[in-house]
Amino acid sequence: MAIGLKEGRRMAARARRWTLVKRVLLLAAFLAVGVFAYETGATRTQYRVERMEERLAAQDADIARLEAEKAEVDRRRLEAVQNEMALQARYDRDVPTGERKALFEMLLERIDAGLEEARIAFLLREAAPEPVCDPEPATKRFVLATPLHDGANASAQFAQGAITVTGEGAAELTEEGLPQAWFDPAAAVTLRFTAIGGDATEAEGKLPLDHSMRFGGNEYRFAARAGDRSFVRVTALRCDFPGADAEPATESAAVPPGGSGG
Fold first, then answer.
1. Which one-letter DSSP state was computed for residue 55?
2. Do the Cβ atoms of 222 and 250 come closer than 8 Å?
3. What is the mean pLDDT of the chain?
């Protein structure tokens, strides 16, 4: 009986040791699984971190590229705006408008009519903002000729008789349509400015008319207005002509303002 009791104790001790071993093995297995899971998770995490860093680096590169492209677009846009402003400024400077356009068109017309460009350049260089003129103009009147009247007092003289002003107009009609001896002030007239030597210029249109001509190294500015019945009042002002000392004194030229005359 003592032998059986002893054997039972050995078996119980062996069972306890085996239980302990199993527990140790199970714990080791758990530890191994945990270590493996940790290593696997760490590896995957590291991989994800690396991939994310690569994507971030690629995004940073894309952002830098886009910013560079945007800067280039902004630079080109600014350059285009500056070029447009420069072109607009050049257009405003080089293309005449308003009164300058009308003056430029008149200049082209004079050149097309045969006036030498050197002559125009000379006149422009010599032109002064404030011409020197006589202190008082001279005013005279004459009877404007009509188909029914071409007699006395049909002219007026200026520049000490060197320039003669004559003209003709349409006869005024009565309510019955009968022509009168005097001119119709509401109709167009023709004024003729004749200098000694035969040089003549004309101004045509409805009164009042402004006209100018050059004679004897001077510029004569005429203003014609309707006067009493049959009469035209002409006021003349003499002014120094630019470059008169360097130019022949026998030339005359009509420069009617506002497109009147010729």
1. H
2. no
3. 84
Token pair 């945007």: residue: 70
Give the pLDDT of residue 120.
Answer: 79
Contact 220, 169 (CB under 8 A): no
Q: CA 185, CA 182: separation in Å to the nearest integer?
A: 9
Which string of b and e fits 53-74 if b means at least 16 CB within 10 Å?
eeeeeeeeeeeeeeeeeeeeee
Say how far apart CA 133 and CA 152 lie, in whole Å: 32
Bridge partner list, 165: 156, 193
* Cβ neighbourhood burial of 228 (10 Å; 0-12, 13-18, 19+): exposed
Q: What is the pLDDT of residue 128?
A: 66
CA angle 239, 245, 246 (to 5 degrees): 125
Residues (pLDDT < 50) of the chain are 245-262
Q: Write the single-letter amino acid at 167.
A: G
Q: Give the integer Cα–Cα distance in Å for 163 and 193.
A: 7
151/54 Cα distance (integer angstroms): 111
Amino acid letter at 129? P
* Cβ 195 vs Cβ 215: under 8 Å: yes
Give the per-residue pLDDT at 93. Answer: 80
Which one, of 152, 174, 159, 128, lies nearest residue 249 by Cα? Answer: 159
pLDDT at 206: 94
